[in-house]
Write a structure and sequence with these properties.
A hairpin with an 8-residue loop joins β4 and β5. By secondary structure, the protein is an alpha/beta fold. The longest helix is centred in the first third of the chain and has 25 residues. It has 2 domains: 172 residues, Carbamate kinase; 61 residues, Alpha-Beta Plaits (2-Layer Sandwich). The chain has an 8-stranded mixed sheet, sandwiched between helices. A 3-stranded antiparallel sheet has the order 15-17-16, with no helix packed on it. Strands 4-5 form a two-stranded antiparallel sheet. α2 runs antiparallel to α3, α5 packs parallel to α7 and α6 packs antiparallel against α7. It contains 9 helices and 17 strands.
């Protein structure tokens, strides 16, 4: 076994036991060809949202450290289940948490960045011909506290592991079979794109295309690892994201849902303390900005995605 294959499966791909069986068959098919296989999993279905909601039911001020400890459980459940299934099928496998896989991050809870990966445990298990199944979306910081990487973070886990292991490719499996010229769920005649450059994919991700985590594409470009997006549920050819530059042409159109929050009052442009408090609040909440404008009577903030009413309530309390 020489070639290391890194495969990532999203939440919709592992939503229940039936789908886990489909994932297991995909993995064993690749393993049977003589490849060494590393699998990265998301939490099953809407598990992460469920855990967030349950935490908010307990407290309106959940400590960031404890929230990450809670959210990491979703991926641990899916990886353990898959390992149980693969071992039952006769394929040696082992599940590893982020810290067991050597993933070290900074201490920015809910939006941590990977600093480095110690691959020794992963390689040890691969050398024993095991299928290694790793929790996506998480790692540990220098204090050995669990951290999470933010929405879509399992994509980033997968490409970071692929880079650390010098894998040839990184496969991202989901319920769609590639990147399209528009959202195929809304535009009937949307066409699949065979090849995209890293830059084009980063632009698509930043504008709301829910195919790949933006940081995943950045790492892929940095280490020149092609990212192949495919469907878990069919054998259709996917989309390859690489440094290949094709002819100049339009690739896709995206409609993005954003939140615009405005704060109004005379002379607001000179209220420097308030402006700083708002900026600090945005940083603390890890809210991604699309635009931030200040005029004589208004601060206008456009966020990259829909923010919930709880954030608006907390901002209101901060200001008033």
């Amino acid at each position: 076994m020489d070639t290391i294959m890194v495969l990532k499966f999203g939440g919709s791909s592992v939503a229940d036991n039936r789908k886990l069986e489909l994932v297991a068959k995909r993995i064993t098919k690749i393993y049977d060809k003589g490849n060494r296989v590393v699998v990265v999993l998301s939490a099953q279905g809407k598990t992460t949202d469920k855990l967030i909601n349950e935490a908010k039911e307990l407290s309106n001020n959940v400590p960031s450290r404890e929230l990450d400890a809670l959210l990491s459980c979703g991926e641990q459940m899916s990886t353990a289940k898959l390992s149980i299934l693969l071992n039952y099928m006769g394929y040696p496998s082992i599940s590893l948490t982020g810290w067991q896989a050597g993933i070290l991050t900074n201490n920015n809870n809910q939006n941590a960045n990977i600093i480095k990966i110690n691959t020794s445990r992963i390689l040890k298990e691969l050398n024993e011909n095991k299928i290694v199944i790793i929790t996506g979306f998480q790692g540990i910081d220098e204090n050995l506290d669990i951290t999470t990487l933010g929405r879509g973070g399992s994509d980033t886990t997968a490409i970071a592991i692929a880079a650390a292991l010098h894998a040839k490719n990184c496969y991202i499996f989901s319920d769609v079979d590639g990147v399209y010229t528009a959202d195929p769920n809304k535009i009937e005649n949307a066409k699949k794109i065979e090849n995209l450059s890293y830059e084009e994919m980063m632009q698509l991700s930043s504008e709301g295309a829910k195919v790949l985590h933006n940081r995943c594409v950045e790492i892929g470009e940095k280490f020149k690892i092609p990212i192949i997006t495919k469907s878990t549920f069919n054998e259709e050819k996917g989309t390859v994201i690489s440094d290949k530059i094709e002819e100049n042409k339009v690739k896709s159109i995206i409609k993005k849902e954003v939140s615009r929050v405005s704060i109004i009052g005379n002379g607001i442009i000179r209220n420097f303390d308030l402006i700083k408090e708002i900026i600090d609040f945005i940083k603390k909440k890890n809210l991604e900005l699309l635009n931030f404008e200040i005029s004589e009577t208004k601060i206008s903030i456009v966020f990259k995605s829909i923010i919930d009413d709880e954030n608006v309530r907390e901002l209101h309390e901060l200001i008033f």
